[in-house]
Specification:
heterotrimer; A alpha+beta (536); B mainly alpha (276); C mainly alpha (328); A: 536 residues; alpha+beta; 7-stranded mixed β-sheet; 4-stranded mixed β-sheet; 27% helix; B: 276 residues; mainly alpha; MetI-like fold; 0% strand
Chain lengths: 536, 276, 328
């Protein structure tokens, strides 16, 4: 057990190596799984729409991934980092125009009706492609889904689509919902969006707004002997300090997604009966990024951007703000990504003198008050750490003579200010890396995106060469060639700094010792928990 | 016996005044004792108090000097409290005097508006207002004043109603003073003492509202306030309680000081009024 | 009795005016907000331009402000509070679900601060200037000066985590299927900490007001007369001094009702109580204009009703009535 009640040092930096090791043991004690029991989990927000086929986001998955399953799930040791769920195998055609899925036999929906390829076709064509936040991009060229038999679904694309992308998108984007529940009436208004029906190990039982969600065991689940738990209850705890208190008071047994603040982890790891787990989020890496508005003439100057990159002490950020539970970043792909990451990019060491020299060179001399120019800095309010980094960045910029004024907005105001009104000079954002740069990473630097699209390049950055590279990678079918193009992409971004990647972090879980089979896949918190159990 | 004498005979009033004097001293000396940005990173993070004498009260999550923040926080907290109370009293006194003096339709309309503001929870209004306009010190002050002016308005109106029929007001009418002039030069000054008596409560409430807004993440990030310090310290309440206790004590003392001194003033004037 | 009826009628007429100011004011305030419900929604999901346009259309946000205000008011005339965009449920149902919780929380907290505050105020004011008088008024003031969220967190750490006497939050044991008395006891246990946190903050208001009122009443003629008649001190304190000092407290009760709802925003968040205060905060954060309007409208109606009751109570306890009875 001590291997996972970690000290501060062994965190993300090591996770790439861990991914490579196939000897990854089932996490938890060497005890036999026990049946029954209610697992109570902290939830800090209440997603309104629980349909993961429409809203592919971690907040929704956290609850509904236990109810609605995907075609495949991420895996530490499976081929291509995947393990089968509703699909047993997937095969891409060489021309990139079709992908064939063989589906699992004997699967039943929670209402007793059999699951078949028609459900997959319906989900893909009626939900993922037209309605899903991420699927609208990845499946944009999907034209039809053929169902030669009950257990085969063949996705046909109008334009060649890299199989690697489809594969990487499976864990997050391929939630299958029942056709018979959704085929009548408007899909967006279907009551099942709030009380999902799926094939998963748990059925959706009830939701009491402001209090809890309850999931109950699905006795007809296809997994042998699974699930172990009788119930999962998500207790809504809106205040960030209450999850730790609830764990200590033994009112809950698990707090995922860093519901326990980082600053409290050291203390709580010493509380008898509690364990701190840093694994199980490798597939959900968040990136700490300084977004730059290139419309400001100072920031349009590469030298100024380089100076800002040199002014940031990434080690300080990792050590003080993330208390070691993060890794410094080199570019737009996180270090722990097993397929695309390259360390071979220009880097910017913390060097105040060099930053000052670069700013002088760029022609922005210090005025009599020691300031070169003033900026508006908008830290995203979603995480404590993004706000704290905003406080830090203001100080770091002051050290090189840039006067930054912090603007504190709530979430909708921040989204509007940055992505629609472009009323910022610098912003601090936490984009998510979703296993493939084409899903939600290239959009951060690509030009030509309409105003108002969140988590995209709204800084007015335009680089034809980079755009061409992104376009080429999106239609390159060969996996090796495509990977190489994304390595090139990382180099270009790190060199031209359309934005500055500072750090990468994942979340931390805190659980009681009795909770078994935690963190046994790279998206554990948002996977189906079929094998999770409560001992003793 | 002079008013000052009587004031000085009350131990509460003296304690209150002493606390306030100390606060003002902190606020005024902050830029001299702690020049530069109090939010600058001064040392290792989460240094406990009394370990390093260059950082007597230790450091916070990012390594900022807690003592410097405390001194600079005195400035902002007092500024927020006093300006919010000043604005609330001003709006309240003007609205109340107008309503009470004019009577009729104007009174009716003004009092219904007062009712409307009073039926909406002040904190909710402040919360909505700050989320919408964006948190800066001025907006926070305005938001607090917006929810706090109704009390003074009601008191002022009641007071004005009772004195507008007095002899000197009638006298002013006879010599042909403009009604507005009578309202603001003759009536308002006499109606003011009970309105001002509310000021200590409003100052205290303003400082607390600012703290609660900071707790919800709606403080001005460019300024140090005690409320923000407490709000930030709560995440490490269990491991480093001093981070929220130190500004907490400062906040409690300030509110006590304001209240006690205010009470002393009210009592002295009340005795004078009942004697006259 | 006719006086009471006239009062009620006058109040109702005034209320319509007050409520319209509240509704239109709140609507305009929210319209001025940067970011709308769609912006709030896509924070957690992301989405492309087409999706955002579809959402704006579906939630009616592509209509003009005036149209939406008119639609809202028209629906309101039919007692329809509309549909929440974030919950996609009728607002009336959501509010009715949360209202009892908030009423219990606010009612108990007010009862605590009013009851304990006035009792301690009587105790302190019976001997103005004594040690206990000073101790109680300064002590309660110190409580008033503690930020509510901080008091709440400390209470949780002490009573829920360290001593484990009480639950850390929520309104009842989750998914427990308790009914009847055992459920009531369960809810009561859950309410101890939030009610204390909310109630102790406002304790000082009532305590000091009671005390001040009593100090004033000691000087009044009828108290002097009672003293002259040789009534016992205890009797004078309770029957004359305290009774007289109670009146402004009751007025305060009315004025304070709205503020308690504001205070409960933070307390409900700290203690995870599913009440209106937290819902209001969520509505602001989610830019759910109709929901926030519904909440503010509900709270305004609540405040108006409470103040009406206060006025009626005031009429019953009129000091002149009291004084004449005492004199008879």
């Amino acid at each position: 057990m001590s291997a996972f009640t970690i000290s501060r040092r062994t965190v993300l930096a090591g996770s790439a190596a861990l991914l490579a090791s196939t000897a990854m043991p089932v996490i938890g004690r060497a005890q036999t799984p026990k049946r029954g029991g209610r697992l109570v989990v902290a939830a800090d927000s209440e997603p309104r729409n629980l349909n993961p086929a429409i809203v592919a986001s971690n907040g929704v998955f956290f609850i509904s991934s236990k109810v609605v399953e995907t075609l495949a799930e991420a895996s530490f040791d499976g081929k291509d980092g995947l393990q089968p769920r509703l699909a047993l195998s997937w095969e891409g055609a060489a021309d990139g125009l079709s992908v064939t899925f063989k589906l699992r036999d004997g699967v039943k929906w929670h209402d007793g009706k059999p699951f078949s390829s028609a459900d997959v076709a319906f989900s893909a064509l009626q939900l993922w492609k037209p309605l899903q936040n991420l699927g609208r991009t990845v499946f944009k060229d999907l034209s039809t889904v053929e169902t030669p038999d009950e257990l085969t679904a063949v996705f046909k694309f109008a334009k060649p689509t890299p199989f690697q992308l489809i594969r990487n998108a499976l864990p997050a984007l391929s939630s299958v919902v029942p056709k018979h529940v959704y085929e009548n009436g408007k899909i967006e208004e279907n009551p099942a969006n709030n009380a999902p029906v799926g094939t998963g190990p748990y059925r959706f039982a009830e939701y009491k707004a402001g209090q809890y969600y309850r999931l109950a065991k699905n006795a007809d689940y296809w997994g042998k002997d699974e699930p172990y738990l009788d119930e999962i209850v998500y207790q809504v705890l809106p205040d960030r300090t209450s999850a730790a208190a609830a764990l200590e008071a033994e009112e809950i047994q698990l707090a995922a997604f860093s519901a326990v603040p980082l600053a409290d982890l050291d203390r709580i790891s010493k509380v008898p009966g509690l364990k701190v787990i840093t694994k199980g989020y490798e597939g959900l890496t968040y990136q700490l990024v300084v977004e730059i508005n290139h419309r400001r003439k100072e920031l349009a100057d590469l030298k100024v951007r380089q100076a800002i990159a040199h002014a940031i002490d990434k080690d300080f950020v990792v050590k003080t703000i993330f208390l070691g539970y993060a890794a410094t970043a080199t570019g737009p792909v996180p270090k722990n990504d097993p397929q695309f990451y390259t360390a071979d990019v220009p880097t910017y060491a913390f060097d105040v003198a060099k930053a000052n020299a670069l700013l002088d060179e760029a022609g922005y001399k210090k005025g009599p008050d020691g300031n070169r120019f003033s900026l508006k800095l908008l830290p995203a309010p979603y995480f404590n750490e993004t706000k704290q980094f905003g406080d830090y960045l203001r100080q770091a910029l002051a050290a090189v003579g840039i006067d930054a004024e912090l603007v504190n907005n709530d979430s909708p105001a921040h989204i509007k200010a940055v992505y629609t009104d472009h009323a910022f000079d610098l912003a601090v954002g936490p984009p998510v890396f979703r296993g493939d740069p084409a899903i939600s990473t290239t959009i951060l630097v690509q030009s030509g995106i309409p105003d108002g699209v969140p988590f995209s390049n709204q800084g007015g950055y335009k680089n034809a060469e980079l755009d061409a590279l992104i376009a080429k990678a999106s239609e390159t079918l060969d996996t090796t060639a495509r990977t190489e193009l994304y390595k090139e992409f990382q180099k270009k971004v790190a060199a031209d700094l359309p934005l500055i990647n500072v750090a990468e972090w994942s979340f931390i879980s805190v659980a009681r010792d009795t909770v078994g089979n935690i963190a046994n896949n790279p998206r554990w918190a948002v996977s189906n928990w079929a094998d999770t159990y409560l001992a003793g | 016996m002079s008013r000052l004498h009587r004031f000085l005979r009350s131990p509460e009033a003296i304690a209150g005044t002493a606390i306030l004097a100390l606060l003002f001293a902190m606020a005024l000396t902050a830029p001299l004792l702690f020049p530069g940005d109090p939010q600058a990173i001064a040392g290792p993070a989460l240094l406990p108090p009394f370990q390093d004498w260059s950082l007597p009260l230790g450091t916070d999550r990012l390594g900022r000097d807690v003592l410097a923040e405390l001194f600079h926080g005195a400035r902002t907290s007092l500024a927020v409290g006093l300006s919010a109370a000043g604005a609330a009293l001003l709006i309240g006194a003007v609205v109340g005097t107008l309503a009470g003096f004019a009577g009729g339709l104007i009174d009716e309309v003004l009092m219904r508006i007062t009712d409307a503001f009073q039926t909406v929870p002040g904190f909710l209004l402040a919360l909505a207002f700050v989320s919408i306009v964006g948190p800066s010190l001025g907006v926070v002050v305005a938001a607090i004043a917006l929810g706090a002016w109704t009390g003074p308005a009601r008191v002022a109106r009641a007071e004005v109603l009772s004195i507008r029929e007095r002899d000197y007001v009638a006298g002013a009418r006879v010599i042909g003073m403009h009604p507005l002039e009578i309202a603001f030069r003759e009536v308002l000054p006499n109606a003011l003492p009970p309105v001002l008596a509310l000021s200590s409560v409003i100052v205290a409430a303003a400082i607390l509202t600012e703290a609660a807004l900071s707790f919800l993440g709606l403080g001005d990030p460019n300024r140090v306030t005690w409320g923000a310090m407490i709000a930030e310290g709560r995440a490490v309440l269990r491991t480093t309680p001093f981070l929220s206790i130190i500004p907490g004590i400062a906040l409690v003392l300030t509110v006590l000081g304001v209240y006690l001194a205010g009470e002393g003033v009210v009592e002295t004037t009340a005795v004078r009024r009942s004697l006259s | 009795m006719t006086r009471a009826l006239a009062l009620i009628r006058r109040r109702l007429v005034g209320s319509v005016f007050v409520l319209s100011i509240v509704i239109i004011g709140t609507f305009l305030l929210l319209e001025a907000a940067p970011g709308d419900a769609v912006d709030a929604y896509i924070v957690s999901t992301g989405g492309d331009a087409g999706l955002i346009e579809v959402l704006r259309h579906r939630w009616g946000l592509d209509q003009s402000e005036l149209t939406r205000l008119a639609n809202y008011l028209w629906a309101l005339c039919h007692l329809d509070l509309g549909q929440s965009v974030t919950f996609s449920r009728p607002i009336r149902d959501i509010i009715l679900e949360r209202l009892p919780t908030t009423l219990i929380l606010m009612g108990s907290a007010t009862a605590l601060s009013f009851g304990l505050g006035s009792a301690l105020g009587i105790y302190a004011g019976a001997k103005p200037g004594s040690f206990r008088d000073r101790f109680l008024s300064i002590g309660s003031l110190a409580l008033y000066a503690v930020p509510g969220f901080w008091l709440g967190l400390v209470l949780i750490v002490v009573f829920a985590v360290d001593l484990r006497w009480l639950p850390i939050g929520g309104i009842e044991t989750i998914a427990s299927a308790k009914t009847g008395l055992s459920r009531a006891a369960d809810i009561a246990t859950h309410l101890v900490l939030p009610v204390s946190a909310l109630g102790f903050i406002y304790l000082a208001l009532y305590l000091r007001m009671m005390r001040a009122g009593m100090a004033e009443a000691w000087r009044q003629d009828f108290v002097l007369a009672a003293r002259a008649r040789g009534l016992s001190r205890r009797r004078i304190v309770l029957a004359h001094v305290a009774r007289n000092a109670l009146l402004p407290l009751i007025t305060m009760l009315g004025l304070q009702s709205a503020q308690t709802l504001g205070g409960s925003v933070v307390i409900e968040s700290v203690f995870a109580v599913p009440g209106l205060g937290r819902l209001a905060q969520e509505a602001v954060a989610g830019r759910d204009t109709p929901l926030l309007l519904g909440i503010i409208l509900t709270s305004a109606v609540l405040v108006i009703v409470i103040n009406l009751l206060v006025d009626l109570a005031y009429a019953l306890l009129d000091p002149r009535v009291g004084a004449s009875e005492a004199g008879a």
